[in-house]
Specification:
- It is built from 6 helices and no strands.
- The protein has 110 residues and is an all-alpha fold.
- The protein has one domain (8-93).
- Helix 1 (8-15) crosses helix 3 (35-48) and helix 4 (52-59) packs across helix 6.
- The N and C termini lie far apart (73 Å).
Length: 110
């Protein structure tokens, strides 16, 4: 029985169907501090969630605009990114960079 070989891209898309994998992948892409890398990651996650047409419909975005938004030169609005993430069962969150210093701790009101 011959083994079926898959490409890296096929394996990646299959892994990105898991929301935890997709979230970790997108977070790693954001750490690269390169918009094009993050947009490529978003394209890959969208592919894993049924492709651009499916995701565009769920996110209530125009498919052609979604392709443009996620292109290498794309410059999506935050509203569109949030809608796209929600359609794939993901959300954007903000975390402090590194350890919080003593001066940055929130003080409780008396």
């Amino acid at each position: 029985m011959a083994k079926k070989f898959t490409t890296y891209q096929e394996d990646l898309i299959e892994a990105l169907k898991d929301p935890r994998e997709a979230a970790a992948y997108l977070n790693a892409a954001m750490e690269e501090d390169d918009r094009a890398v993050f947009l490529l990651a978003l394209r890959n996650v969208a592919q894993a969630h049924g492709g651009m047409a499916t995701v565009a419909g769920k996110a209530r975005l125009n498919r052609e605009n979604l392709y443009r938004m996620l292109s290498k030169e794309g410059n999506p609005e935050i509203k569109s990114v949030l809608s796209l993430l929600r359609s794939m069962g993901l959300k954007l969150s903000i975390e402090p960079k590194g350890k919080a210093s003593k001066s940055s701790k929130v003080r409780k009101a008396a």
